[in-house]
Design brief:
about 200 residues; Rossmann fold; five-stranded parallel beta sheet; Nucleoside 2-deoxyribosyltransferase
Length: about 200
């Protein structure tokens, strides 16, 4: 690539926040201090600017995001819980899988360091005042969790902060999930680690 600083795709539910543009500006400044060039999804979405909400606009945004990921050297992902659920933004999860398939280095960050099962338990108690229950072992099936929710769904991914596929793919991309209570602090930890891996600075 014809650039001196590695280009980093910045993703997460950040794009849906009211202060998204200002937040990305601060995260890009952190990237620059680390010797990286941070790129927000908005940076590739010029063709979709001004179009009315709808299917065609969304498909243009999706195509633009894919093209931006294709042109980046690595990905840095926010995996915070989304819309008050224990789960992260599903679009970001897709992007993590896509960039791993491209063979690009990955890092992640979150402001919520609770184990995934604890997030699920809190969600059920807060929303319906219902607790999780022990899950009896299932014969001839691997045990990815020891609890189930009131719908009988396994609370999987023990030992992870998020869905095991998400955190596993970050690990396969050479990364870890950096944590801190403040958004920019957690992001800085992840960006610093990624910069070291890429030899930036």
């Amino acid at each position: 690539m014809n650039h001196t600083r590695p280009k980093i795709y910045l993703a997460g539910d950040l794009v849906f926040r009211r202060d998204a543009l200002a937040l990305f500006a601060r995260l890009k400044a952190i990237c620059a201090a680390c010797g990286l060039e941070g790129l927000a999804p908005f940076d590739g979405q010029k063709e979709a600017m001004g179009l009315p909400p709808g299917r065609e606009t969304i498909l243009k945004i999706v195509a633009a995001d894919r093209a931006l990921m294709d042109g980046c050297d690595a990905g840095l992902f926010c995996i915070d819980p989304f819309r008050r659920s224990p789960e992260m933004d599903p679009g970001t999860a897709v992007e993590i899988g896509y960039m791993l398939a491209l063979g690009k280095p990955l890092e992640a960050w979150t402001t919520d360091p609770r184990p995934y099962a604890e997030k699920v338990d809190h969600y059920w108690r807060a929303a319906w005042a219902l607790p999780l229950a022990p899950r009896p072992p299932i014969r001839d099936a691997p045990a990815s969790g020891a609890l189930e929710d009131p719908d009988g769904m396994l609370v999987h991914s023990d030992g992870m902060l998020q869905n095991g596929m998400v955190e596993g793919f970050i690990s396969f991309g050479g990364g870890v999930v950096s944590t801190a209570p403040a958004c920019e602090t957690a992001f800085r930890k992840a960006a610093t680690r990624l910069a070291r891996r890429l030899g930036a600075g």
